[in-house]
Amino acid sequence: DSGVTQTPKHLITATGQRVTLRCSPRSGDLSVYWYQQSLDQGLQFLIQYYNGEERAKGNILERFSAQQFPDLHSELNLSSLELGDSALYFCASSPPSGHSYNEQFFGPGTRLTVL
Amino acid sequence: GEDVEQSLFLSVREGDSSVINCTYTDSSSTYLYWYKQEPGAGLQLLTYIFSNMDMKQDQRLTVLLNKKDKHLSLRIADTQTGDSAIYFCAERRTSYDKVIFGPGTSLSVIP
Description:
The complex is a heterodimer. By secondary structure, chain A is mainly beta.
């Protein structure tokens, strides 16, 4: 158990819908990262937040958005869903900047299926 | 380019050594990582190496770093069936904490 929790574990929805994925980082970690893992695209970095502020952006679509709240939990919002959005979505957290090798601790993931 | 590259598949016999190779992109990357993903689970840090090191050994794992060629390898000695997983190489860029992952190498261990 990495200490990072993600809900829900599975999500099945239809095209055109909107969903929200939730992540709680490890206690004390300020950074939260979101990744998308699919068979054809591999592990894609989406976005990073640090202590409530966006820090880095990767291959995140405009239909997707995220935020990190004052209690440091984060939500990833996916809207106008398409079949190709079906994937595993991972959240990871890491300790505050400057902590040596900065390991990222991954949650168990949310499996999203868009029908 | 932007991409970290790895071969996608590797198959070895139980008891043999496995070598997983990776080419990264940023010569100023500070840390290089190997993460392991078991079926149905998230990624877990296996080992890491700081960029000023050439080699790091940790029990059955040996990491070799060639900064000149931007080449990283992971050797698993006496590979076991429990080592079957996907192994991701990753580099930490100097800009903030951005970590770029490779596509992952799926290691299959044949009993």
